[in-house]
Specification:
binds 3-methyl-2-oxobutanoic acid
Length: about 290
Amino acid sequence: MSTTFQLDTATSRAHPTPSPLRRLSIPAIRQRKLDGVTARPIVMLTAYTARQAQLLDAHCDLILCGDSLGQVIYGLPTSLQVTVEMMIAHGAAVVRGSYHAAVVVDLPFGSYEGSPEQAFATASQVMAETGASAVKLEGGAVMADTVAFLSSRGIPVMGHVGLTPQAVNTLGGYNARGRSQLEADKIVSDAQAIDQAGAFAIVIEGVVEPIAIEATRAVACPTIGIGASAQCDGQVLVTEDMMGMFERVPRFVKRYGEIAGLISSAAGQYADEVRARTFPTVDQTYQPK
Ligand code: KIV
């Protein structure tokens, strides 16, 4: 059944018909993995706008307002230029557009790595001003104290290990991680460190499959794979990637749509009709009564 929305202009919320399910809680997501088994894999997609969130909401357990919005929305070269203000503006829109999925907002580069106190100040602002259910931050063992600090103070944290895009300058690129024994061991021990520190879930990005599987088995909390393995406890993709918004996509992306072609051909048809003065017609113009 399709969902329709009625915009409440006073609150900017779009009320769906039929009525939505209750929003999933973070403990409910965490408990999807019990004794190492996740019977129903966790579905996560990114969203940056209210309308996008409305369309994804019923299908997802988690919606991530990721700092990938730097490249996807703002055309920035990396996520390093993304600010807390950008994350709050888009995170709040995603929360307004969703009712069912739990919304996670990325903490941007430079806003949390300095100390647990800095992370708490940023994360509490993000939570208060967006209404999100949790934050995500990048890094393994080095962030374990911060993960423990936040989660023991009411802020659920999703970790992110393996290929961590905010560290592109130290990693030297976006290549898959875990090909050497040293890297593989570090990915598994990083995941264990933030799991033990209290992360409710961990994104494993761009990691060779056997190491993604080993890390998934080594932690109690669910892992969410991207360029990792179907044996992770869930999956995430950038929605624009899987919808075919860009010509070039990483090899781990499966295209489930061809949205760029649709936009381009609709714009082309509109342009032709404007130039031929065949748009607007009587159907799209106001006539005197
Ligand atoms: O920023 C983002 O969209 C992400 C996902 C790719 C996991 O971190």
